[in-house]
Amino acid sequence: MAEKDKPGNAMWGGRFAAGPSAIMEAINVSIDVDRRMAQEDIAGSRAHCEMLTATGIIGKADGEAILDGLAMIEAEIENGSFPFRREFEDIHLNVEARLKELIGPAAGRLHTARSRNDQVATDFKLALRNAIDGLDLRFAALQTALLGQAERHASTIMPGFTHLQTAQPVSFGHYALAYVEMLGRDRGRFADARARLNESPLGAAALAGTSFPIDRRMTAAALGFVRPQANSIDAVSARDFALEVLAAASIASITLSRLAEEIVIWSSAEFGFVRLPDEWTTGSSIMPQKRNPDAAELVRAKSGRVTGALVGLLMVMKGLPLAYSKDMQEDKPQTFEALDALTLSLAAMTGMIETLALDEAKLKAAAGRAYATATDLADWLVQNLGLPFREAHHVTGADREARRGEEVAARQAHFGTDAERRAQDHGGRVLRPQRREFRRLA
Length: 442
Ligand code: ARG
Description:
Structural class: mainly alpha
Strand order of the largest sheet: 1-2
Shape: elongated
Number of strands: 6
Bound molecules: arginine
Radius of gyration: 32 Å
Helix content: 55-70%
């Protein structure tokens, strides 16, 4: 087939020149996400410019013009007038293009001894460091809310569960403090990630470093990094810092999801342990009686998205050879989305915990049901009658069965069908001797 006869060409070939470039822009552009690293980008440029001036790599006048221009851009970003333009692809080129409009040719000296590769790694690290610091305050607020409930309900008795079966009575304070501990470890994981990411990529340039006599310690210190990253190829290739933050976020989101699940269960009519105030529930459009714990359900669901972001970035990075590949641009959308989801979840959970009203009578009644004190009885037999624990466990279990048999028998006596009478026989024959055995011992 001749080239000109290929099918399809006649259909869309006329727009070919315009089509692919527009599509190229659509797939290539990152400014929509990058704009949230605008402050960090300015900070990085400022540190780089001061270093270029201090080392004599650029002249003082140019350096000052650049710093003035960066201050203007920062003000534009703050007051919302900065023109974020898709044709300049990302935040780095947007800032540089605007700088040129504001100060002229001196702007062209800022990118000396720098690449967008070390620039973007720097921006992203700074943004994650800020995000971690913000999250830490939110974790602390949730811990404070839980501590408040723990103090209020230090002696409110409730059933503790294993397998979601009534296990042993505990206090609500004891329960709430379990989450305080979990959240403390969640904070610790973020703190670990923060310490490891706090090294500066600046100066790595594209991957090989630079022939200019830069001072990497100076830029690192100006940006609050502990030191420059040791290896320039690593500095532009690594995204394990983001993976680590997402791993910490995923684990923390699972803590929140479990607490959310407790709230969903506890606020159901079947449990009735707690009541969420109106502000944290929604009604049903058809069932007038409903008070749905939507916020708790959404916290539970957000953990799926956060964990999805971790898996997403793992897959982006999986097969990438060193050093930078454009694949790595896909690191930021899901990371920021996950951190936003976690931030919102922490805020919602803090609000719910602060306003959770416990039904103390219901909790206490539930704690007394389903033989919740059987372990205490077994312990009593060990402590007062000197039984080996295993035997005390057996005897207590037999007594529990006997009581269950008696309950069944009482019900059967009341309702009395054939099947029920058979059950009563069973209860009588099998379970009564065990009951006697217990009486003998006690
Ligand atoms: N927008 C890019 C990113 O987020 C910045 C780095 C671009 N580097 C490059 N060599 N094209 O990853």
